[in-house]
Structures are given as C-alpha cells and as structure tokens.
Amino acid sequence: MASHGVSDVVDAAWFKAHVAGKVDDAVFADVLPGTPSADELRAASAKKDALFCEHVSKTGATIVEGLDGFLGRCRAEGVTCVAVSNAQRGGCEAVLGQIAREFPENGAAISDLFVGAECARAKPFPDPYLEAMARLGVEPKTCVVFEDSGTGIKAGVAAGVAVVGLTTSMTAEAMRSAGATATVADWTEVTPDFLRGLVAQQAAGPSCPLL
C-alpha cells in the first residue's frame, strides 16, 4: 500500500472498514490517493490478488471451523453448493484449491464459482447471486446464502434469498440489522435440523442449493 502513497496502518480494523466484502474496484477507488484511473485500479487489484495467492500457497487461508463436516452433510443430503465471492477469481480459486486438498472427499461438494467482478454488478447488488441461481436453474425460495459481510448479506437479501450470517467478522446483531435471517458462529452450528428449518421457512423442497 505504501508504494501507492497510502500511509494508513493496515490492520484488522482497517481491513474491516475498507476491504471486507467489497469488490477490488470499490476498495482501491476508496483508499488510493486522488482519482485512480481504470488501469491503476486493475493493476492494484492484480497485485493484491497475486499477494493473496502467494500467502495462501505459503501459509494457507483460515478455514472456518466445521467446514469439512458441513460439506459432508451437504453431500449426504444431496445439497448443491456453490461459492459466490467479491474476491478476484485467482484468490477464490486458491482458497477452493486449499479446501479441495484439505478435504479431498467433501471439498468436491462445492461445484461452481461465481465472481462478483465478473458480473454486471458486484455485491451489494444481487447480480452474483441471481447469476448463480440462473445457472443452477433454481428460484430464490429454494436457496440459502451463507455470508460473512454486510455487503454480502445485502446482496443475498436483494436477490430474495434467506441469508445466514457467519459471525467471523461481524456481530450477530449487526448481521441481523443488515438483513440476515439467522446467524451462526461457525459451520459446526449448521446442522441438518438447522438446514431443514431454513428450508421449511421458505417452503422449499428437500434439496436446497447453498450459495
């Protein structure tokens, strides 16, 4: 960041305020000095993505507790899972690759990836979720979104989908204020009964895609 003239201390609070849940163009338009050009935004995004991929390769990304078991339950129940993210494709694929390596059996439950920057509009607009549902051929009432950011929650709600907030970076109260239907601390709390309750709430069938 210093090479771009940004002298802020980049810590967890800074990340939460400026980066979490946002697409790179919005992040760098906000934090870079002046009015960066489209080329400057692309270059900054590419550098950030490359650094993140290098970090994942060397030290790994933090995986929220219980993901392996959650994906295993989805496979057992015949539930379709896809990833929908505002991160760049390279970073998304790096994390999905780590999940596949760490959970070789259940990681395959995540069948597709949708990237906000590749849609007409990224989160907080509903476009990434609408595109995912269109490709899956499903309706919002048959889906559940899991999100960890206010931007993502707003996107899911705007798409007409029930949203479960993972309280890894926001409080349950803040997530509910943003529109989350329910919140969990980690994937261990997403039990079959929990999922069935969400599906029943939306009058959905037994196989409810998770985004």
UniProtKB/TrEMBL annotation:
Q: Please indicate which superkingdom the organism of origin belongs to.
A: Eukaryota
Q: Per UniProt, what is one GO molecular function of this protein?
A: metal ion binding
Instruction: Print the keywords alphabetically.
Output: Carbohydrate metabolism, Hydrolase, Magnesium, Metal-binding
Q: What InterPro entries has UniProt attached to this entry? A: Beta-PGM-like, HAD-like_sf, HAD-SF_hydro_IA, HAD_sf
Q: Report what the protein is called.
A: Putative haloacid dehalogenase-like hydrolase
Species of the source: Aureococcus anophagefferens
Q: Which gene encodes it?
A: HAD
